[in-house]
Amino acid sequence: MKIYFNNSTMIGILLVTASVIYIYAAMQLPGGANSLGPSFLPILVGCLLIICSVIFLINEQIENKKQASSGENESSPTIDKKHFLLVIYLIIYLLVLRHFGFLLTSIPLLFFINRLYGMKGMIKPLLVAVFLPIIIYFLFQSLLGVPLNLI
Questions:
Q1: CA 8 to CA 60: how far, in whole Å?
Q2: For residues 68 and 4, what is the distance between their CA atoms, to the nearest angstrom?
Q3: Rounded Cα gap, residues 64 and 118, in angstroms
Q4: Residue 87: CB partners within 8 Å, gap ≥ 6?
Q5: How confident is the model at residue 24 (pLDDT cuts 50, 70, 90)?
């Protein structure tokens, strides 16, 4: 079986890798993989992401095989630098979230994402990056009763 490797395949592999890292981080939450505690939903989301990523990779291989057998010489899609940087930001976020807490990691992440996707200036992206995690933190803490690691 010939494996076709292009940019879409690389994205699929990155998604599977990020999913595994995400599930590992979710298992570090209280309750781990043994109960229906705070880690249950993140583990479920990570598993679903792995399933979707594998389906994406299989479909990509089928499409590439069809193109190769029909003789189509279609150039592979290019990876947008923004999307690649977003994946890198999210992986870094997942790796440092446990050590620095929700607020200290979410503020820089949102600031970089705002700037990456074209929010002009410095003040507006900074205000969004500061206030959105604070609002989310208090909504989870007070309305839902779900504790988030503050620091």
A1: 7
A2: 9
A3: 33
A4: 11, 14, 15, 18
A5: confident
Whether 76 and 6 have beta carbons less than 8 Å apart is answered as yes
Burial code (b: 16+ CB inside 10 Å, e: under 16) for 56-90 equals bbeebbeebeeeeeeeeeeeeeeeeeeeeebeebe
pTM: 0.53
User: For residue 110, what are the contacts with CB-CB under 8 A and spacing of at least 6?
Assistant: 125, 128, 129, 132, 133
Return the residue matching tokens 């998604």. Answer: 15
Q: Rounded CA gap, 18 and 24, in Å? A: 10
How confident is the model over 92-111, as pLDDT tens digits?
A: 888 888 888 888 888 999 99
Tokens of 119: 């929010």
